[in-house]
Structure prediction request, 494 residues.
Amino acid sequence: MAVDEQPPGQLKAGAIGFFDALVIGINSTSPAYSLAAVIGAMTAAAGVYAPGILLASFVPMLLIASAFFYLNKVDQDCGTTFSWVTRAMGPWAGWLGGWAITMTGVLVIGSLADTGVAFGLRGVGLDDLADNMLVRQVLTVLLILGMTLMCVVGTEGSAKLQNLLIVLQVVFLLVFAAVALYRVYADTSSLDSIKPSLSWLNAFGAGGPALTAGLLLGVFAYWGWESAVNLTEETENSASAPGRAAIWSTVILLVTYLSVGIAIVAYAGTAFLAENAEEEEYIFPLLATEVLGSWDWIVYFAVATAAVASTQTTIIPASRTALSMARRKALPQRFGNVHARYKTPDVSTWWVAGIAIVWYLVINQISENAAFDSLTALGLLIAFYYSLTGIACAVYYRHHLLESAKNFLLIGVGPVVGSLLLVWLLFEAIRDQADPENSYSGVSWFGLGPPLVIGIVIFATGVVVMFVWRVVSPVFWNEQSSVVDPDVVHSEEF
Prediction:
């Protein structure tokens, strides 16, 4: 059957290729935004070992990416974690994994769009408008609506836009890093620069508490690469290309983060970064003029393009997970609607955008710090569904783990170790955020830090919705856990 003759309800097969999926995976992490958001706090915690923390954070991401690769080979479902965990561990765990993915999009889309608007305005010299909260919020909502429309109109158009944005973002970042390192070695840095050393890559040099704090930030920095796999039903060679794109996304992010991270620490020195750690993504603008002078607009546009690109790509996993859940009767059927012309999940996409807009407007009415607290809560959800996926991989393949060293290490040991690392980080984050003083707001919500309260409320809401839907439509909960089809594992394509 030709692509344009697909049955109703099917996503558009073959809409994008491996490179498009790779770009979307990279852009979903918003490299410039993510690095700017974590490098100050990471340096405050770990000093010159911040690049080493970025290297160490890569390890659990790569191990979980391996789980995504092998699970996608046997189940090309756009719901990814939801579908895989359901098959391996049953409907209850699968539903909660799908809920976590969908809610991460709701929490972060508004913040990404807001950052894109703010940095875009500053890049063209409109600082007064960037500081006007009403103007910024209106433009943010319009940007979310525009990016959502792009997602609905078609995956091909979205991929072309992403290709352009990643080129601009990477070029801007590399120019910044190259100039910063040149000035360090030329002794023309305007700050207390430090010559880079290989010892910076030793994450354990930071010490126990600093390592833990840094790794929590690192997980946030790498999060998002799995968007490539959420497009599996729309990607050519869907059994392997999306999974390979996810793995290569993490590798490319590692190289980018290490290059730019080393350049930042070397140019600015640890004291400057630690003093400005609370500035979050504004670390880059603070350094832009120092490094590039009148060319500082390059850095503004690097962060702006990163945030705009990620605004769009973050909608993808949330909307396609909702689509997958609806097709399995785990959510109302209307969320499974696919646009007759564009072959995209239009209803779930608009719902995700709508809820994200409401969350953005409400949380910003509380305070800007509350908005940052909601982003911190992301780490809890990320660690939860990534760890579920790693465990599901080993469980789903359990009858085949001892058939070869590759299966044992890449499908079993690797994903489980990655999951255990993330579970450890999850508990560390919960313990840390239980203290209100560790939040951006520094205030107490019910005796706890706001990020932990937000995480608990989101999880509890999910449990309530799950039980209600279990009563209203029990079909999904009749599904039984299973193991991977041996014929697929032993096929030539595997």
Q: What stands out?
A: The chain has one domain: 13-488. The domain at 13-488 is CATH 1.20.1740.10 (Amino acid/polyamine transporter I). The chain has a mean pLDDT of 83. The two ends are 25 Å apart (CA to CA).
